[in-house]
Design goal:
The chain has about 500 residues and is an alpha+beta fold. It contains 13 helices and 14 strands. Helix 4 links the parallel strand 2 (about 105-110) and strand 3 (about 130-135). The relative contact order is 0.06.
Amino acid sequence: MAGRDWPAAGADVRLQGRRLALLTTIPRLFAALLLGLLAAPAQASPLAPEAAPAQQPATPAPTAGSIEVDRADGQDERIAQRLADIFANVPSLSQVEVSVSGGVVTLSGIAADDAAIQRAEAIAGGVEGVVTVENTIERDVSVDIGEGIGGLGDRIGQVGRMLPLVGLALLVALAIAALGYLIASLSMIWRRVAPNGFLAEVITSAIRFVFVIAGIVIALDMIGAGALMGAVLGGAGVVGIALGFAMRDTVENYVASLMLSLRQPFRANDHVIIDQHEGRVIRLTSRATVLMTLEGNHLRIPNSTVFKAVIVNYTRNPQRRFSFELGVDADDDAEAARVLGRDTLAALDFVLNEPAPEVRIDRVGDSNVVLTLLGWIDQRQADFFKARSRAIAASKRALEDGGFAMPEPIYRLRFDQRTVPLPFENVGREGGEPRASTPSPAAQPPAAPAPARPAAQTDAHDVAPEDEIARMVEEERADTSAGEKDLLDSGRPVE
């Protein structure tokens, strides 16, 4: 541009000026490099003063030899005019003002954002003849209320135009959900397919849930809200995982209820022991197993505990064995005592002959021989606790009548030197141990006669099964006011 305005002589002068500038620039660069190396330690020193706050970076300094010494007349005005024309055609830079002096461009005014400010600086730096750019443009932080209201109005208008499509999508979603509820309402079909009513309810709930979700997804896809649909599904997944961890015990209990309803481990009114809890089963609900304890109390055990517990069911097998221990003197004939105890149990009318009763010599105690007596009863004809109580009484009476002693525990006492001595006599020592002196027979009072032992009483009905708890359980099951649905099904096989 300058070459077109100057004559050939001016071009020679400018060429010589450039050479001279190049020759003078090289020593200046070396000097600047040396000063930078000397100033670097001072800047890194902890005693150096704090650096001035950083200012907005300007256009990088031109390379060596790129600045012209002589400039054409009117070049600054042409640069300013060119930049003004460019900024006028860019909407985001229409409010930027330009001033040029000696090839230095100063930008001022306001711009929409930081990106527009940087863009204006880049445009100014790309114009030929510009030495550097001082960027003082400020970001426009004012609020255009009219534009905002206009944008809101456009959005409202867009929503109004989409209302028919939104209505159609809503109708489609409702139709799909209604279809799911209609299919789930066919309870007779699902009760025939499912093993029990509880599982049928689970299936119908799952059908309704799937159809409702499908209707929502299809409706969102119809109105073009794919991003919203993905956000909804992603949020539902995250919420589901969070709820799964938070309600882990509840979910575990629900699954255990489902498995127990399928397995049917017991019947109503069964006498069971579940995790050290004994009682008769009232009902199995979707949350807990309800027992009636032998004391007549209600006991609710969570189904998750019941599913993992060891269950003892006394009702499944009507035959039940009782056992108890009796001790006879160590000097007595233990085998004869065993035979007598077995015959005594066999003579009781409520003890079954098959399996036959049995008596075992269990162990030798401190002062006796311990016998374990075992007998079988039919729980449908005899109560377990009554039968065991009558058997203990009859066996003890028979052994005592047979001359077998049932000694009490014997303890030996040793006294040290600090206690008051007791009168001992030297005669009658056994094993070196002194024996306490006993008064003469003449000084002893006459022994009182032993009370007459009452005759054994037998009552054919005194071991009849107790049905109080069973009757209470039946009354509880007949009362449906609690509203808890029983998952026990007598028509299904017991596990």
